[in-house]
């Protein structure tokens, strides 16, 4: 039984800003069912601690240059038996709202200090120096906020194995050289072979260079990030480390995301009772104050309102919405400019479009259940989870052929329709024209309900549960352990 410390900056339902939170709860739960001794460790954000019923202090540690103690608190992930360790240092983590940004959407000015502190504490736990009498065999780190952990562990005489998962390479944790000095990091780590990146401190390089194994969240994205288009300047390093780089598609928690049992949705249904899905369409149309109209193709979008997600393409589509037999609902937050434009268009086209700015977990489930199709025109998408939820809910995904979207959605063309394999609509270029053509194809398919229901059922019969992915992660842990054994 492997002992795994899962280091992450967010985990559902404790704290969530995106898909990382879903992965950071569902994957550990799946690993636990496969007899792994796994514990999650994350910062003790005020919001996260509100969601834990019983907490106890299990350790107090002193970190160099930091006044006072850093507490290690312990609780359990809700609705599971997984222990969660919280790194508690109130000046760093006791603040309201988003874990990374302030109320205006700007990164917290002390993010480097906050996540350096977190990484140092994780390292102490990993080395069994805090009195827990538990040392992991493997540290599983996720995204730049944990990137210093493999770098710091590389300085230890003996250490656990390390796996670093890239959920989105666009976010790298870049800070000025002065920050590196202020953090008191070992001088040996300031080099292009370590944390230096064009005279900046790069947290993510700590994971990419020093982790025993690296993976990302789809096979296609693992290939894409080795190119200049998707590598954000790190493609050369990733090519250099390609023998240690793999891609594993995310799964979904089909207990939380199951239209037959989902407590958030208006009416339960399954692939054999698709007529019941239409009641959810009526419900979400009413919730967004749109006319209830079964003949209109209802499109949904759930996600961050940023260019990466193709929001500008959706805005272009909206300028032509009056000429199309569709309705569109949007749930998300992000760039203020996009938020303002969406709210303006909702006033302009009240019978065909509405939006809710912000995130609402219940509403996300209701959109997945009620929409006919889900838009995901992302310019890049490491894996994506919403298209997987959509497939499971019989909500046909419309996706750009990139990353995990290309790995998980089968385009409805003559061949795949004839073979009864089609699960969605895939377009090749992230342009206004390509998205409009994809929507028009969707409208044509929706008009033939016999064909449409076949596509829905194909998606609902797809299997993207976490057990399959977890088994692949266990293999990666073993590979990482073998790497350490050779050192």
Account of the 3D structure:
This protein starts with a strand and ends with a helix. Helix content is 38%, strand content 18%. It folds into two domains: 3-251 and 466-486, Glycogen Phosphorylase B (Rossmann fold), CATH 3.40.50.2000; 274-460, Rossmann fold (3-Layer(aba) Sandwich). The strands form three sheets. The protein has a nine-stranded mixed sheet, with helices on both faces. Strands 15-14-13-16-17-18 form a six-stranded parallel sheet, with helices on both faces. It is an alpha/beta fold and 487 residues long.
Calculate the terminal CA-CA distance, rounded to whole Å: 22 Å
CATH class of the largest domain: Alpha Beta
Largest pleated sheet: 9 strands, mixed
The helix content is: 25-40%
What Rg is obtained from the alpha carbons, in whole angstroms?
23 Å
The CATH architecture of the largest domain? 3-Layer(aba) Sandwich
The shape, in one word, is: globular
The pLDDT mean sits at 95
Q: Kindly report the spatial arrangement of strands forming the biggest sheet.
A: 3-4-5-2-1-6-7-11-12
Strand content: 15-25%
CATH fold call of the largest domain = Rossmann fold
Number of helices: 20
Quaternary structure: single chain
Number of domains: 2
- β-strand number: 18
**SSE class:** alpha/beta
User: Unreliable segments (pLDDT under 50, ≥5 consecutive)?
Assistant: none
What is the CATH homology-level superfamily of the largest domain? Glycogen Phosphorylase B
